[in-house]
## 1
Amino acid sequence: MSKLNFLPLFMLIAVLGCQNHQQHVQPETVEKPKKLGPFFGVVPSASPKLLAPELLASPATEYNGTFTPDGTEFFYTTDLPNNAYITFTQMNADSTWSEPRIAPFSGTYSDYDPLFSPDGNRLYFSSSRPEGDNENSKIWYVEREGKGWGNPIAVVLTGEENGEYYSSLTHSGAIYFNIWSKGDIYKAIPLDSTYTVEALPEIINKGRDKGDPFIDPNEEYLIYRGYDDTIGRGDLYITFNMDGEWTEPENLGEPINSTQHEMCPWVSQDGKLFIFASGRAADPIPAKALDPIKNINSTYNSGQLNLYYMSADFIQEMKAKHIKG
């Protein structure tokens, strides 16, 4: 006999009422992954938008976003209080994307600044391995091995303990990078198994700290982060290589730069997509009843950097001003 038969009438009604309520609670809706396609399926816009917030945005700091040339893999830096990791997501066979994970060659040391070589067969990055001191950061790379990656290999550039960061490559194999302790951007030109390193011209390196250099693979332009005459904490600038001479750097202005911090520029090889990191306040996505709360929380900016995208058309528009008629 059921124990409910021995309960007083008012308690029996309460228990049955609770059971009835539980039966009518709707289960949480589980959204299926969206079929985004290459490059997350984004359509470059005239103003910055959060890049795939359902995948990338989080309470952590995200920056240094870079796609493979075909747009089917995306690597970036996830910066947490105890360490920085290179994180990645890749497109599945059904055009959905995998949940971001720490890259197979990262997770132990402080790793950051992933940037692909133009052919996509190497991923260059900055790391303080093995000492763990960011001031001694060096340039490393991993080579593709089948569907995976080989072991990290150090790139000997200056041979000094002065912090080398953000390695962007040209088709010729030259590496553009910056040295924090000196506040300048350098070019490393391959020579047999070594490199000849030279500082970029004073027209670029003058003023305060310069860094995060993204070089067009054909060396037609350079976009970098600087702190001179900024709108906010740090801005992005561009300079063009016109007949072997670099033009006076120009602030990219709004809506790219904001009153917050902008850094880590990247442009797709077809010249259509521009990605950068920004500390601006992000607009939350529309929310409705029974939405997973993680999707809503992830798009609120809490003073950290998030990844943004927009059209790269501004590059050719700015270059046109330097072309003599």
Note: The mean pLDDT is 86.
## 2
Amino acid sequence: MISDPLLFVATSDFAGRTRGKAFPVADYEKRSSRGVGWTPTNVMITCFDVIGKGPYGSLGDLLLVPDRNATVTIDMEDGGAVERFALGDITDLEGNPWECCTRSLLKSALERLRTLAGVELMSAFEHEFQIVKTGQTVPDAYSLRAFTKQRRMGETLMAALSAAGLQADTFMAEFGPNQFEVTNGPALAHRSADHAVFLREVTRMVAGRFSERVTFVPISNPTSVGNGVHIHMSFVDHTGAPKTYDPGGPGNMSKLTASFVAGILKYLDSIIALTAPSDVSYLRLTPHRWSAAYNNLGFRDREASVRICPVTAREPDKIQKQYNFEYRAADAAASPYLALAAIVHAGCQGIEEQLSAPEITQEDLSVLSDTELGKRGYGRLPTSLEQALQKFEANAVVRSWFPPCFSSIYTAHKRAEIAYLGDRDTSSRCAAYADVY
């Protein structure tokens, strides 16, 4: 059969969807400098493929330019098509970063961190997903039986992730029905967000080869568990030396880490619209779901919004390299670039404001009254997407981190998503998102 190999160049958009165009592989040299045409109004396409009301209409032209260092070719050696795709930046026709390019927004946040603190961010995105099944499910949390059923898919996935340049780490059956978790090693700067997009798309591709369908939906059943994205972070200087750990600091946090985490917690209620951006995300962000419900820092606490993670090393130099903290109020409805950009900006704000180390909790905050929480500087996170959008809009500091047009475009996009759902009941809303993600 005649075939002209194609490469798909993509952006991760405001809906966390991977969209783009394909071109012949033979044209790669030309396209890597000139890109492919893109349209500004595409930013208003919601996750449900409805175009929200925005400022662009039919006007304007952009370029989507593939990144040579974010290009993947995966041959699963099963007789199927070779998968070829690349991630890229959206620019104007002169090559300048576009104001709504999520990848460029992250790069800008990371440059702020670099300039402010002289460090680079190391991070990794930990994903949960579910295999879509019909009929009755069998209790199989963390079991060998559940793993064995999907061993071949898991082994193929790990090989495919390695082929995509990720450091494949673990694959396991999780607590929820047909739920699995896949993790990979950390990467520097914006590459970790690239890897998060790779992981989601490669997982879908591999599942399709096994006649399975997966969903990264934040929650598929309001009576069950959700699927989170946990973002692990640490810092290194220009030599690669770790800068996150200080054995004399609170919770072993360096002063840099403490202020960065304090910034995240201070601005968390105003950035969560970017890290947990679906209507159903807030069904998961409730107490006792092992997710996040308050703006607290926990030590080995999987209910905290930010968690200091355990280390297994014993030698001081290895402890420094392993030590990291984890942001837990995120899910895969978010573009990894936007989520990480918001977190980094909040952390940088904490450094600029020289915020003190936050209290480290090891308790159930849901048993405290609002008054008691307020006295200790805690508050319940927004309980709906609309509430989260209002917090984002009302916070001039948070809005100032992004281009002037960003906040109005992003909130209009998200409200078009909410409007599409109309008066559907909770189960129908979950099902609609499960089909998308």
Note: The longest strand covers residues 62-74.
